[in-house]
């Protein structure tokens, strides 16, 4: 029963950026916190991320973006999530995110933003909080 | 505290210190420690400038020549990058270190769909020779050498640099570039790889074999322990994995019948200065010795200068914090001090705002001036290897050498670095360590000043470099203009010659130079490689 209730998270690195330490350690932290974690690997297109999310029926898509391209990427992905009717899938974003962009992302429909340096506890409780 | 493990008693006094590479540190050191370790001045250190070069590559260290400064620079369009290059040179910088945007690093032109949102963002966009001609306009290529921070398509960029030099009227034997060209470390950390391992290594081999003959002042590879360290490796692993990667490149070139003595002298390295100060100094001193010994013993290299561990010791990105970002200015100064005490031949510093984004001109100049201050004001040029003979430093240097050798032995047991990377074992070890370290940082076991465990800071307001989406348009327009005016038949012919070389065993460098001169684009050349080599499927480990 417990496994059925586990939150399923796709940790994904969209685009060309290859700095994956953050994505990998957050994946490990979410797994240790009892979530089911799928890590996509590097250089994923948004189409690939969407199709993995559907195939794996995830509850959360967590993007790790370090290049500064978080606004254009999230704009597209939130639109794709809407288009495909995946209303139950939450998008969360981490990486190098300047303060002034956090609200912009939230308005776009990003459920939570975890800029670099956010503690594992905050990320875990932030994601758990989406389902309460 | 810091990156080391400190155990304290109930009064707060330190009872135990363990460095990241595993050395336990005593409260004090004396002559007996050196005696116990079997320390010998002649074999462990040697005179400065003499084998095994633990003390220095040059007999007088920085007296004969201060370090070369190479701040990592590049953003937006080639025009803007050119302006920033000139600003840095006017302020005393004596080498360049070019940052490319992600599409360029991944072999895509500015008009490729995958480039959208990334053009000119983390570095400058380079599509064709036209961009290099603009970026390096007015730069004396016979006096200023250029590091090219690019790996998967480094062969293309080295060819582009030759084409640039020759177009500007500089003989190819007079110009000097150092493409990073270390594809194996990209597969451990940083992730800007394209082609499968064996093809990636073949391209590195082609560029080394070519440069040795045709570009004698260039350094065709700069092996980056730096990024391996940033991905979670200890200082000992940083050096060990870099040397094992170097071994893979030496072996691939040697298999072509070229004597290692003919090319190892052109190898360069890039190492990190982030971490505990003493551990860094011991790391660099031990590394110079092990590299020289490895080349002598394993490859029969005897010429003194070819045994030098040359390279850039700098950066320190992992140490930066978003919280209280001005603290990063001080961190940078101490990292640079460590580099100077280690005899760094070339250096560069991460700028204080790089916890947020790429640096502003003000913060980049602050880094450059920090480096100048150490050489011209503090006294780091006074005498060579000033810490030599310290009971502590010499004991630590010996212990560090043992740790590095243990890690090298582990790689050999796995069947070598190529196999360790192909099956993901190295990546797995490094990311597990990164996870453990991050947990320690969050629990307060490790310490960064300004960060409070369990509490997130909003970050401070600092003036930041701003990306401008108009740069992408400018790059696309410029690319379209190149495609309109170039000679299409010449482009097709040179790309066909490249394909032929890639499919066979001929060196790809001569056709790449011809492609560049015909204004073939980086994307077109990389696509030839993509079609012939395919793309790497990384082992997913975390």
Question: Explain this structure to me?
Answer:
The complex is a heterodimer of chains A (132) and B (542). With 132 residues, chain A is an alpha/beta fold. Helices cover 42% and strands 19% of the residues of chain A. Chain A has a single domain, classed as Cobalamin-binding domain (Rossmann fold). Chain A is built from 5 helices and 5 strands, in the order E-H-E-H-E-H-E-H-E-H. Chain A has a 5-stranded parallel β-sheet with strand order 2-1-3-4-5, sandwiched between helices. In chain A, helix 3 runs parallel beside helix 4 (99-108). Chain A is globular, with a radius of gyration of 13 Å. Chain B has 542 residues and is α/β, with parallel strands linked by helices. Chain B has a single domain (6-443), classed as Alpha-Beta Barrel (TIM Barrel), CATH 3.20.20. Chain B is built from 20 helices and 12 strands. Chain B has helices at residues 31-36, 41-45, 78-90, 102-105, 129-135, 154-167, 183-188, 197-214, 225-230, 235-254, 277-299, 327-341, 361-378, 391-413, 417-422, 425-443, 470-485, 488-503, 509-517, 522-533; strands at residues 5-8, 14-18, 24-25, 68-69, 72-73, 96-99, 146-149, 177-179, 221-224, 267-272, 311-314, 346-347. Chain B has a 4-stranded parallel β-sheet, with helices on one face. In chain B, strands 1-2-3 form a 3-stranded antiparallel β-sheet, with no helix packed on it. Chain B has a 3-stranded parallel β-sheet with strand order 9-10-11. The radius of gyration of chain B is 23 Å and the shape is globular. The mean pLDDT of chain B is 96. The A-B interface holds A 13, 15-21, 23-25, 27-29, 39, 41-43, 45, 67-69, 71-73, 96, 98-99, 115-122 and B 102-103, 105-106, 108, 114-118, 121-122, 186, 189-193, 230-232, 321-323, 355-357, 431-432, 434-435, 438-439, 442, 451, 453-454, 456-459, 464, 467, 538, 540, 542.
């Amino acid at each position: 029963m417990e496994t059925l209730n586990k939150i399923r998270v796709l940790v994904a690195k969209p685009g060309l950026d290859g700095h994956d330490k953050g994505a990998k350690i957050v994946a490990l932290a979410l797994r240790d916190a009892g979530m089911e974690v799928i890590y996509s690997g590097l250089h994923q297109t948004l189409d690939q991320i969407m199709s993995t999310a559907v195939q794996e029926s995830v509850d959360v898509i967590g993007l790790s973006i370090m290049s500064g391209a978080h606004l254009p990427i999230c704009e597209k992905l939130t639109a794709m999530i809407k288009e495909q009717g995946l209303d139950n899938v939450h998008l969360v974003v981490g990486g190098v995110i300047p303060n002034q962009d956090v609200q912009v992302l939230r308005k776009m429909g990003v459920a939570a933003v975890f800029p670099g340096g956010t503690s594992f506890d905050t990320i875990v409780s932030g994601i758990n909080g989406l389902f309460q | 505290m810091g990156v080391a493990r400190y155990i304290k008693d109930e009064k707060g006094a330190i009872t135990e210190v363990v460095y990241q590479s595993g050395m336990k540190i005593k409260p004090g050191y004396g002559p007996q420690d050196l005696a116990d370790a079997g320390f010998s001045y002649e074999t462990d250190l040697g005179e400065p400038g003499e084998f095994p070069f633990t003390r220095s590559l040059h007999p007088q260290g920085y007296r004969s020549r201060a370090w070369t400064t190479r701040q990592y620079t590049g953003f937006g369009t080639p025009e803007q990058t050119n302006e920033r290059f000139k600003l840095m040179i006017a302020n005393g910088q004596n080498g360049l270190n070019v940052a490319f945007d992600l599409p360029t690093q991944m072999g895509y032109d500015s008009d490729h769909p995958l480039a959208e949102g990334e053009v000119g963002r983390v570095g400058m966009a380079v599509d064709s020779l036209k961009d290099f001609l603009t970026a390096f306009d007015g730069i004396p290529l016979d006096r200023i050498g250029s590091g090219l921070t690019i790996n998967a398509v480094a062969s293309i960029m080295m060819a582009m640099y030759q084409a640039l030099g020759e177009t500007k009227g500089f003989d190819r034997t007079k110009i000097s570039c150092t493409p990073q060209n270390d594809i194996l470390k990209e597969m451990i950390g940083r992730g800007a790889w394209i082609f499968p391992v064996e093809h990636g290594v073949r391209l590195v081999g082609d560029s080394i074999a070519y440069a040795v003959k045709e570009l004698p002042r260039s350094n065709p590879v700069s092996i980056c322990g730096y990024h391996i360290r940033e991905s979670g490796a200890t200082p000992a692993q940083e050096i060990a994995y870099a040397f094992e990667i170097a071994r893979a490149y030496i072996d691939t070139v040697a298999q072509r019948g070229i004597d290692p003595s003919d090319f190892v002298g052109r190898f360069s390295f890039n190492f990190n200065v982030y971490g505990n100060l003493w551990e860094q100094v011991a790391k660099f001193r031990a590394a110079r010795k092990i590299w020289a010994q490895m080349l002598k013993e394993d490859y029969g290299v005897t010429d003194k200068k070819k045994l030098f561990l040359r390279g850039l010791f700098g950066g320190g990105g992992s140490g930066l914090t978003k919280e209280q970002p001005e603290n990063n200015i001080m961190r940078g100064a101490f990292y640079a001090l460590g580099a100077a005490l280690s005899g760094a031949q070339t250096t560069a510093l991460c700028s204080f705002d790089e916890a947020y984004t790429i640096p502003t001109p003000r913060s980049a100049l602050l880094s450059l001036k920090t480096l100048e201050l150490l050489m011209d004001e503090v006294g780091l040029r006074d005498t060579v290897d000033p810490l030599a003979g310290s009971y502590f430093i010499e004991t630590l240097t010996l212990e560090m050498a043992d740790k590095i050798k243990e890690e090298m032995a582990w790689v050999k047991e796995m069947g070598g670095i190529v196999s360790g990377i192909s099956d993901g074992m190295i990546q797995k070890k490094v990311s597990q360590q990164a996870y453990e370290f991050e947990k320690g940082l969050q629990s307060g076991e490790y310490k960064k000043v300004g960060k409070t465990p369990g509490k997130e800071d909003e970050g401070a307001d600092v003036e930041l470099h701003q990306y401008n989406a108009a740069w992408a348009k400018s790059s696309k327009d410029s690319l379209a203009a190149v495609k309109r005016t170039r000679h299409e038949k010449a482009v097709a012919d040179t790309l066909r010659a490249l394909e032929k070389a890639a499919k066979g065993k001929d060196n790809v460098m001569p056709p790449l130079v011809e492609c560049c001169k015909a204004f073939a684009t980086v994307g077109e050349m990389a696509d030839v490689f993509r079609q012939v080599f395919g793309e790497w499927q990384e082992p997913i480990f975390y």
